[in-house]
Design goal:
With about 500 residues, the chain is of the alpha/beta class. The protein contains 15 helices and 14 strands. It is globular and about 75 Å long. The chain starts with a helix and ends with a helix. About 45% of the residues are buried.
Length: about 500
């Protein structure tokens, strides 16, 4: 081949790689982290759990510092919330600026905060506060703009499906008349002007429970055999959730806002309930959430917006024993408090939307050695004693008052000490054992100002090559590139 031709082919390959990584964005899955419970693991442990599972998005319902800080130094994107009761504190610019400057901006240096949800389902849950939502959104956005953070952090607010007057057929859906022009319209204008998106909490479970005579359970659970056709558009819906999301799209279009995207900020299925909630069971929860994962990660969008990646957050990481209401309300959890799922859940590619994976975190190929969170305290104490004693690990940062002392737990302190020992041994895997209480990870365990040292090239990376972050390039893009390449080669 001529040199020029070779260069051309190389450029072509490069172009295809870049095009693929730019164009392709599959839908992504996040998890809601409800904490209305008295038995949950520490936020730090939860952050480790999500990283271990390859979950890169989380939504919390307040702006609790210690919870947010637990995600520092991870690749997990965090949606934080200004709770409904606090909207009145954000009605003028000064306090919103202050909140952004004193709270959001410092945390943003180490935590990937991506969205601030200003209130949750306000017009339905607290109709009297509806007028507080937009001013608070505007003031927070203004504060972010002044702090140069408005590109990185979007402001939105989550609505329930109850804000729609009708939702079927999706194509005839509209917003509640009494809220449409006064409440929804100005918010949609704001979302458009600020490059944000619409958040909807959509629950086929609730729809089914209130209309079980007209909604088939299989349809609510995404059974492909159960198809519902919108008579106006002839679009086929395999799954009620997709019809709900399209209902929101159509309602927004009716308001002149066809350009906005919808994020499913909550969905899921309870795994247990009262006697009259028999469909709240493990099998249905597993079916719903696995189908949801598959559909969202498959990048098929909704029938009305095919190819428009749909991001969805599964409610919830854990059961919440303090949540009021029927028994189902306390059983939305996917993970038990030891970090195991209650049922099989296929989280493979859960991080696909971002193109990064736990193995490729930060792209450096570094590895760290940390304590296994399921090891007993007693055995961690033994390992800790060895590492900090004979092992000569650097245990200064885990002393009281030092950056890695908090969280004050065996698992955290052992992690730091184990990693120090492991790094000093030159990433020798044999040095990450400690009686089986240690594990090698490619996820940087650093948080806040607690930095876990690492070498630039790790052992795991070099043995299994998992350090690169190539994502799967879907056939259509790959096919297009192969075609171009073949075409190019045929010209040589
Ligand atoms: C923040 O969350 C942590 C962990 O759930 C909890 O212990 C603490 O009380 C919370 N702080 C506030 C101010 O709510
Ligand atoms: C925001 O960016 C502008 C222009 O780059 C700069 O002058 C200003 O100091 C920045 N403000 C803050 C709070 O970082
Ligand atoms: C519309 O919203 C108003 C105010 O929140 C509420 O009173 C009314 O019941 C809603 N209408 C429908 C049809 O949901
Ligand atoms: C839907 O399908 C029916 C039957 O095939 C057809 O008559 C009708 O024109 C179609 N409507 C649209 C909007 O495509
Ligand atoms: C993804 O979508 C395509 C097209 O609808 C379908 O053929 C394929 O089976 C889906 N894959 C998965 C894993 O669901
Ligand atoms: C990746 O991790 C290494 C090792 O901890 C660190 O030095 C580097 O700054 C990190 N890079 C990014 C982009 O976070
Ligand atoms: C282990 O120690 C931590 C504090 O480091 C404590 O919170 C936890 O309850 C202990 N676990 C057991 C099983 O004793
Ligand atoms: C789609 C998506 O969320 N992409 C993000 C993945 O993570 C990188 C940083 O690692 C962000 O820049 C992308 O926006």
């Amino acid at each position: 081949m001529e040199l020029q031709a070779r260069i051309l082919v190389c450029l072509m390959v490069l172009f295809c790689a870049i095009a693929a990584s730019d164009v392709v964005r599959a839908g992504s899955i996040g998890f809601c982290y409800g904490r209305n419970a008295d038995n949950l693991p520490a936020p730090q442990v939860v952050a480790q759990l999500l990283q271990k599972e390859g979950i890169t998005k989380v939504r919390i319902y307040d702006y609790n510092t210690s919870v947010i800080q637990a995600f520092a130094g991870t690749n997990i994107e965090v949606i934080i919330t200004i709770p409904n009761e606090e909207l009145s504190n954000f009605q003028t610019e000064a306090p919103a600026d202050q909140w952004v400057n004193n709270f959001v901006a410092p945390l943003y240096q180490s935590v990937r905060i991506t969205v601030i949800s200003v209130g949750v389902e306000v017009p339905i849950l607290h109709p009297d506060s509806a007028a507080l939502v937009l001013p608070a959104m505007q003031n927070v956005h203004t504060g972010l703009t002044k702090a140069n953070l408005s590109d990185q952090i979007k402001v939105s607010t989550a609505h329930s499906m109850a804000i729609l007057k009708t939702s079927f057929p999706p194509s005839s859906s509209t917003f509640n008349d009494s809220l449409a022009t006064t409440f929804v319209g100005p918010i949609l204008d704001f979302l458009k002007a600020t490059g944000s998106f619409y958040m909807v909490n959509a629950y086929p479970y609730h729809a089914y429970m209130s209309e079980s005579d007209s909604i088939a359970l299989d349809y609510a659970l995404f059974d492909p055999k159960d198809v519902v056709v919108d008579p106006n558009t002839n679009l086929s819906y395999h799954g009620l959730l997709m019809a709900q999301v399209d209902a929101v799209y159509f309602a927004m279009e009716a308001m002149g806002h066809g350009e906005l995207s919808v994020m499913v900020s909550e969905t899921g299925w309870p795994r247990a309930g009262d006697a009259d909630e028999a469909v709240a069971n493990v099998q249905n929860a597993a079916t719903y959430n696995n189908n949801l994962l598959r559909l969202v990660l498959n990048n098929t969008g909704t029938p009305h917006r095919t190819g428009n990646p749909l991001d969805a957050y599964i409610f919830s990481i854990f059961d919440e024993d303090k949540k009021p209401g029927k028994s189902s309300e306390q059983h939305w959890g996917v993970f038990d408090t030891t970090g195991n799922t209650f049922y099989y859940l296929d989280l493979t590619d859960a991080d696909q939307g971002n193109g990064s994976s736990p193995q490729s975190f930060n792209g450096t190929g570094s590895t760290w050695c940390v304590a296994n969170p399921s090891a007993s305290n007693q055995s961690l104490q033994v390992g800790l004693n060895y590492a900090c004693g004979k092992g000569n690990a650097d245990c200064g940062p885990i002393q009281r008052g030092q950056p890695c002392f908090i969280p004050d737990s065996y698992v955290n302190h052992a992690s730091y000490a184990y990693n120090s020992y492991y790094q000093r041994s030159g990433d020798n895997p044999a040095a990450c054992d400690f009686g089986g209480t240690a594990i090698i990870t490619s996820e940087n365990p650093s948080y806040g100002s607690c930095v876990f040292p690492a070498d630039s090239v790790g052992y795991l990376a070099s043995i299994n090559g998992k350090s690169s972050s190539w994502r799967i390039i879907p056939c259509n893009i790959m096919g297009r590139c192969l075609f171009l390449l073949t075409f190019l080669l045929s010209m040589l």
